[in-house]
Write a structure and sequence with these properties.
The protein is 73% helix and 0% strand. It has helices at 2-19, 23-32, 46-78, 83-98, 111-121, 123-140, 143-160, 165-181, 183-191. The longest helix has 33 residues, at 46-78.
């Protein structure tokens, strides 16, 4: 039993460290010498990297972030981790992306990483996220707001699918982290209603 617990702990730590690998930050630093956290929205995600490097930078960062989220969960599954450890790996890789230790806990906002992790953990949850995002976009015409609505719906979907408690807790934590990482954007969107500014749009990651 102690060996199993230690193995699960190592898997979760590795998932966190994998999340700390900031694709956009290091790509921009390597190609331009700039600190991506000092540019645009201050995030290290694909949208902000795209502001500096264009479409190619956006695509590379997006695939890198989605890939590390998927890899963290896949690694836990391949190594036969306990169900709780697999759920914890899903959370840990997102925590690592949002709060990377080597960058003084200043990273991205977890959307792409969360998508990759959910794709491996339970594709049905990703399907719900996508469906809610598209439906919300048809109503509000703001892609980021719609995406956050999709993440907010994921824990409820886990309950509807009658997933195990560790799965519901894991995806619930993931959703809270993503929403918390966007707290400043959410506050700005709440202040910027159609009555005040019909052309207001959210800023990127």
């Amino acid at each position: 039993m102690p060996g199993i617990v230690m193995c699960d702990l190592i898997i979760v730590v590795v998932a966190y460290l994998l999340g700390c690998v900031q694709t956009g930050y290091y790509l921009v630093l390597f190609l331009t010498g700039q600190d991506l956290r000092r540019i645009g929205s201050g995030g290290t995600g694909a949208r902000n990297a795209g502001r500096v490097l264009g479409r190619r930078g956006f695509i590379i960062t997006l695939f890198g972030d989605v890939g590390k989220g998927a890899l963290a969960v896949a690694m836990a599954v391949w190594l036969c981790a306990s169900p709780w450890a697999i759920a914890a790996a899903l959370v840990a890789v997102t925590v690592g992306h949002v709060w990377p230790i080597q960058l003084r806990f200043s990273g991205g906002r977890g959307v792409a990483v969360g998508i990759g992790a959910l794709a491996v953990y339970d594709p049905r949850l990703l399907g719900v996220l996508a469906a809610v995002t598209l439906i919300s976009f048809a109503v509000v015409r703001r892609f980021q707001v719609s995406g956050l609505a999709g993440f907010a719906a994921v824990p409820f979907a886990a309950g509807c699918f009658r997933l195990p408690i560790e799965a519901t807790v894991g995806v619930g934590c993931l959703s809270v982290i993503v929403l918390f990482a966007h707290r400043s954007h959410i506050a700005r969107w709440l202040r910027s209603t159609p009555r005040n500014n019909g052309n207001a749009t959210g800023s990127g990651d």
